[in-house]
Write a structure and sequence with these properties.
Number of strands: 0
Distance between the termini: 141 Å
Largest sheet: none
Shape: rod-shaped
Helix content: over 70%
Radius of gyration: 46 Å
Order of helices and strands: HHH
Number of helices: 3
């Protein structure tokens, strides 16, 4: 019985030693594979996750700013169109009433007309 016990004990020691060596080999293989993978990734010039997230946030911010600017340009175009329409209506009024244009042309440079004197064409007096 002792021989069987000694044999089993030796077998258990060898097995546990082999398991320890296998674990060591496994750790060594993992380390080598990781090194090799890191070397390949470094050659591929890939970006780290943190840098990717930063650039992603910058792109999102730029996109939102661009959308805000598009909306602002649209508002300004509407205001410009309204101002252009007002200017056109003022020009149309000036064209439709040539009397005012003629009166302005008759007015002497340097003399001012009062609003009531505009129809008579007489120069304004200083009161």
């Amino acid at each position: 019985m002792q021989t069987q016990n000694r044999f089993l004990d030796d077998l258990a020691r060898v097995t546990s030693g082999a398991m320890g060596v296998a674990a060591g080999v496994r750790g060594e293989v993992e380390a080598r594979v990781r090194e090799q993978l890191e070397r390949v990734l470094a050659q591929m010039d890939l970006v780290p996750r943190e840098e990717f997230e930063v650039v992603k946030a910058m792109a999102a911010k730029a996109r939102s700013e661009q959308e805000e600017l598009v909306a602002r340009v649209a508002q300004l175009e509407v205001l410009l169109a309204e101002k252009g329409a007002k200017t056109e209506s003022v020009k149309a009024e000036n064209v439709s009433s040539p009397k005012r244009t003629r009166q302005k042309a008759k007015a002497k440079p340097g003399s001012s007309l009062k609003s009531g004197d505009a129809e008579s064409g007489s120069p304004a007096s200083d009161d």
